[in-house]
Amino acid sequence: MRDAEAMLTIGDFARASRLSAKALRRYDELGLLPPARVDPFTGYRYYAEEQVERARLVAWLRRIGMPLAEVGRVCERYAADPEAAARAIRAYWAGVESETAARRDLAASLVDHLKGTTEMTPEITNGMTTETTTPVSALRTAVRLDRGRVRASQQDAAHADPHLLAVADGYGPEGARAARAAVEALAALPRDRWTARSGEVLDALEDGVRGAAAALTELTGSGTTLTAAAWTGGRLAVAHVGDSRAYLLRDGALVRLTRDHTVVQALVDAGELDPAEAADRPDRALLLKALDGGDVPPEPEIVVHGTRPGDRLLLCTDGLSAVVPTDAIRRALTGAGGPEATVDALVALARERGGPDNVACVVADVAPA
Ligand code: MG
Known about the structure:
Order of helices and strands: EHHEEHHHEEEEEHHEEEEEHHEEHHHE
Strand content: 15-25%
Bound molecules: magnesium ion
Low-confidence stretches: 117-135
Distance between the termini: 82 Å
Largest sheet: 6 strands, antiparallel
Radius of gyration: 25 Å
Mean pLDDT: 87
Shape: elongated
């Protein structure tokens, strides 16, 4: 047993580490920073001088907002390999910045939404103004799944109906089940939830993603991406977790509506990686976010975008977007074919490039009704 005289009292240790005594007691309970000695009679806690460094690390990590569980993991890494701890902190911060960027985009979407560049017309019903869809357009869809030329099984899933489009890319031993369950949970929501006012559609999308996450709780070590788009007649609301993508083709220009939830994308967002190098990174598929049946389902990123007749939408998994260059995808989408011919053309492009991964893709045309 160490001599208490050579050790720091909790008060001295709190001052040296800039953590409060209350925080120190809590970190002790969590096993994050146990005292070197607890007096068996008085219950006083004593800390060793060499614990100050770890305590300061904990204090700094808390100051940047890192959750306690993650702090514990970084501290363990720091003890064995400070370089690995540095990488973990960098990855955490890249995730925070990516999350902030997603919230910024949602805020911008909502501002646009409230400013009302809408094709929906207000209608007076019983003296109350309600927003209803005008029959200016309808969605014509096609969906295609392709196993590719290398993979032994199909772990992607897709869905398309006149109001809801979705693709999912499963991973892990039960990836196929995860992707299917996620898409089915979303498609199982009552149809009238997709034809409601746009604010309610956002709620429906969130409920759908939550339902998808709940459907995966029994799967361990498996999960899925999910990119879903609800179309309300004049507007598209996209909910997104992972690295599958949604694109909008308008007047020949292809706009990506989603941001990949990958470590590589977060590094690009943080200015630490040149976008041109991102595609060649071996870790480009490493996801920051996915539906994985964890206790805390990830918040989907939500984007709202106005649509008009003549627009074409594409939802796809990375078996297409990571394999076929964006310009080739754009050319296939701009071709004369309808949605069915276009999904075939997209799958053929992925196969021409070796078809290394499963492909799920949905093409939907906003057509005059
Ligand atoms: Mg894939």
